[in-house]
Amino acid sequence: MNSMKQVSMEKVTLNIGAGKDQAKLEKGIKLINSITGRNPVKTFTKKRIQEWGLRPGLPIGCKLTLRKKEALELLKRLFEAKDNTLQVSNLDNEGNISFGINEYIDIPGVKYDPDIGIMGLQVCITLKRSGFRVKSRALKRHAIPRKHRVKREDAIDFMKNMFNLKVGE
Asked: pLDDT digits over 26-36, tens only?
């Protein structure tokens, strides 16, 4: 197989949305810290949505991005919480995988913390191929050609080979 066509993992992002509830946001920060041992960053609103009581600059969630070896080790634990299965609906047509974990106590090695309570989180995995840097570099930036993008079938094959996952309907 062509080495430029091999799929690899770019990053894993953990995300907790709290809305305007600051107490839930603090619990989310503690949760991500307890799972990974690293501090997440807060996410802020950009738009004003009056019906929801949101204004620009209000913290509404937290996220943490992991790459390389750290991401692989964490993913193995997160997939165990999902019984090593994914749904086809968890994958999009551009090589991204996203799934939720309803209760963090399902993750192996994470103990229940009464300060946090029961909470869930969102996990997003971004896949790439060699040469994807052309879309983000400073000079001579280009779009990724359609035939070089990661398709849903490529993502399913990568997840099955790398993590021994079952992908169901």
From this structure: 888 988 888 88
User: Could you give the maximum distance between any two Cα atoms of the chain, in Å?
Assistant: 53
Predicted TM-score (pTM) of the model is: 0.86
| Beta bridge partners of residue 64, listed in sequence order | 14
Q: Hey, what are 118's tokens?
A: 């029961």
Q: What domains sit in the chain, N to C, each tagged with a CATH number? A: 3-168 (3.30.1440.10)
What is the b/e burial string over 105-119, where b = at least 16 CB atoms within 10 angstroms of the residue's CB?
eebeeeeeeeebeeb
CA–CA separation, 125 and 112 (whole Å): 25
Closest Cα to residue 16, out of 50, 42, 51?
A: 42
Q: What length does the chain have?
A: 169
